[in-house]
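SEQUENCE WITH STRUCTURE:
===
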Amino acid sequence: MAPRAGNDEHASVLYGFHAVTEALQSPSRVIERLWLAKLDGRFFPLTCLAKERHIPFSVESRDRLDRLAGDRHHQGVVASVAAKQYLDGEELLDDVEQRKVPTLLVVLDQIQDPHNLGAIARSVDAAGGHGIVIPKHRAVGLTAGVAKASAGALEHVPIARVANTGKFVEQCQKRHITTIALDAESKTTYVDVDLTEPVALVFGSEGEGIRPLVLKKCDAHVKIPMLGKINSLNVSVAVAVMLFEVARQRARKR
């Protein structure tokens, strides 16, 4: 996905084979036009989906696709799409309360790398998570790199954007969702807490971690033990580790 508007809030151009395929298969996604490198081979399923949805498409040169995507790594597929809408925090919480399984949210405090956010969205989808929460300021939005790195997961993972991460943590607590922060200074490891009940996992930025005011509000702090010379994981890897511990515990309980 590549943003063609002047900000990172929304993107009106989507690119990459998997990302565009997921968008074409999503009834809620409005696609205005499709541009392809070819009309045969692996692109044939895309043209079939476009015909079913009455979406115009055409063959374009590599240079033209590069310009449309704003990126050379489009895999020969570019689509013009309506913006993906953010939820607000309360909307996301209302949505998860309707589910018959315990809530699993990921709250990101000022993550700025688009590839990390995209990878996190992919892990949330894979582990059966119910949404991601990001702050409005000093954090990456739904940019080109995010959608590309998510490999289509953004089509399935609700994204809420909030003005104040600390207040969202408090909103979770009011709804009996336990907030658990990843904190390298904690004495408790992530496998030593009960993750089978409704939880919101809170992670900090790549360089600074969770801001102190947000960290203080969380119900519990846990760490992922580091056994080597490096004292931390990339945030997208840390999110995946914790998400699949949630999935493991819940599967065992069932």
